[in-house]
C-alpha cells in the first residue's frame, strides 16, 4: 500500500513526464517562406500521411496540419452538418433562481455546434418568441464570401420575425473553439448562447476532448430591463451571480458544475467567456493550463497557472490529470472591484464564491477541499501569446476612431458611447446589406459606416479613448469577418503617430482584444473578405449605447461574392410588417439594435 507521500511523489513524477510530451519530431519539417498579396510569413511545409492521434495532434488529414495557414486553405470535406434551433421563452433556474430566459431548444447553454474543419454548417433557426426578433451570430467564424450569414440584425439581415425561420449556411474554414449568440440588442444575456467546436489539429498533444466550458456573469432580472436601466446610470450594473457551464449555487439552491477528469490522461478544455460585463481570471487548483489556442488561432504552447479572458475571448488549454485522484476547484474571479465602481468593469454580487468542480474518475461525490493561490485581478489581455503560423505585418499609419462618452441630463442622463462623435444606431428593417444590394450609398447618420475599398491590403485602425472624455474602462473589441493583428496598445496614453512602435514580427492575432483603459488599440486586418462587418465593444451594455461601427469592405464585389440573396430578402419581407404593425405604441428598439 502506498503512503500519501509516495502517492503524491508518484503523481509529481507523472506530471513532469506527461508535460514534457510534445509534437513528434518525425513530422517536423523545415520552415518555408510564403507570400500572398501584401502578406509575408513563415510556416512549415504541409505533408501527407500523418494522422491525428493522441500523440500527433499536429496532424489532421492529408495535406492539412497545424502548420496550414487557415486564411489560405482548408479541407474541402464535402460534408454538411445540420442543426435545428428553436428559440423560445422558457423559465429555467441555472443557479436555483427561476428566470424567464430566451434559449435554444429549451436548454441552457444551447446545444454545441460541432463540425470538422472544412465542413459546411447549416443551422435552421426558428424564432418562437412572441415579442422579439432574433438572429444568431457565429462568433469568430470568418464567413468568407457569406456576409449575409453573419447574423447581425440591421447590418447583414433583418431580424428573424416571430414564427419565421432563417437558414444560416457557412463553411468552417477555421478550426478551434467558439460560441454563437443572439446579436439582437442585449438578448444573449438572457441565455441565447451556445458553444461551437470545429475539430482540427492542435499545437500540443491530448487524449480527451472535454468540450466547451462557457463562463458568464448572470443577472436575475430580464436583461432588457437591466440594459434599459444601465442606459441611464452612472456605473456598471452589478451582476447577481456567475455561471460556469450554465450552473452555480445561490441562496436559492443550484449546484456547482462538474467536469470529469481521468487520471493519467491529458484533457483539452475549451474556455469561453460568453459573459455580459466581466473580465474573468480562471485557475484550477493543483493543475496548470498548457495553452494551445487563443480564439481561433493556434499558439505556441505555453504553461500558466491562470488565464484572463475578456468577453468573447477563448482559450484552448490542456490539463494534465496527474494529481492525486480527488476533487479540485476551478476558481473564477472577476476582473476588478467587487463593488460598484468604474475602475474595472464587472462587479458581481457573488464574486467571492465563483467555482466549479473538476472530479477525477473514482473520486467521491463531495465538494473539493483543495486550495490554490489567490487569482490575479485586472482587466487586460493575457500575456505570452505567440501565433503558431507566423506572419509579418508591414508598418502603416492607422486611421483614427475616436471614442467618446456622454451622459445627457436633458435625456434622463442617457449614456452614449460614440465613435468619431456618432453613437451607432442600426435600422432593423433597412440593413446595411440592403443598401449595398440596392446601390444606395447614402447611409443614415448613425450607421457609422467606414469604407474599405482596396483589395487584399492591410487596413490599419487606432481606437483611441482619452481619460478626459471617457471613464477609464477597458473594452473588449471584436471584429466580424476577420481575425485582426494587435500592433500596439497602451493604457492612459494618446497614440502619437509613431509607426515604428507597431509590432510587425508575428504579432498577436485573434478576433477579440482589449482596448486598454484611457488609452488606445492599434489593429490591422487584411481586406480579403467583401462584406459589411461590425466592429464593436463586446460588453452588450456598451454596444447597446452606441459603441460600434461597420466596415463596408469592397462594396462593389459584395453582391457577386455572396450570390443567392433569397433568404436575406425573405427575411426582410417578413420582418418589416412585424416591426411596423405589431406594436401599437411603436417598436421598442430602445438602443443601437446590436
Ligand atoms: C415571453 O413570454 C412572456 C409571457 O408569455 C411574454 O410576456 C413576453 O413578451 C415573451 N417574450 C418574448 C421575447 O417573446
Ligand atoms: C424584447 O422583449 C422584451 C421582453 O422579453 C422587451 O422588454 C423588449 O422591449 C423587446 N425588445 C425588442 C427590441 O424587441
Ligand atoms: C458542461 O455541461 C454539459 C451538460 O451538463 C456536459 O455535457 C459537459 O460535459 C460539460 N462540459 C464541461 C467541460 O464540463
Ligand atoms: C480532502 O478530501 C479527500 C477526499 O476527497 C480526503 O481524502 C482528504 O483527507 C481531504 N483533506 C483534507 C485536508 O480535508
Ligand atoms: C466628447 O463629447 C463631449 C460631449 O458631447 C464633447 O463636448 C467633447 O468635445 C467630445 N470630445 C471629443 C474628444 O470628441
Ligand atoms: C438610402 O438610404 C437612406 C438611409 O437609410 C434612406 O434615407 C434613403 O431613403 C435611401 N434611398 C433610397 C433611394 O432608398
Ligand atoms: C489609468 O488611469 C486610471 C485613472 O487615472 C488609473 O486608475 C489606472 O491605474 C491607470 N492605468 C494604468 C494601466 O496605468
Ligand atoms: Cu465597452
Q: What is the first-to-last residue Cα distance? A: 62 Å
- Classification by helices and strands: mainly beta
Oligomeric description of these chains? single chain
What small molecules are bound in this structure?
A: 2-acetamido-2-deoxy-beta-D-glucopyranose, copper (II) ion
How many extended strands?
Answer: 37
At the first level of CATH, the class of the domain at 399-582 is Mainly Beta
What is the overall shape?
globular
Q: How do the strands line up in the largest sheet?
A: 14-13-18-23-20-21
Range of strand content = 35-45%
List its salient traits.
594 residues; Cupredoxin; Immunoglobulin-like; oxidoreductase; binds copper (II) ion; globular; binds 2-acetamido-2-deoxy-beta-D-glucopyranose; oxidoreductase activity; 6-stranded mixed sheet; mainly beta; disordered N terminus; 37 strands
Plain-language structure description:
The chain is mainly β and 594 residues long. The protein has a domain at 399-582: Cupredoxins -  blue copper proteins (Immunoglobulin-like, Sandwich). The protein contains six helices and 37 strands. The chain has a six-stranded mixed sheet. A six-stranded mixed sheet has the order 28-27-30-35-32-33, with no helix packed on it. The protein has a five-stranded mixed sheet with strand order 17-25-24-19-22, with no helix packed on it. A hairpin with a 2-residue loop joins strand 15 (249-250) and strand 16 (253-254). It is globular. Residues 89, 129-132 line the site of one 2-acetamido-2-deoxy-beta-D-glucopyranose. One 2-acetamido-2-deoxy-beta-D-glucopyranose binds next to loops.
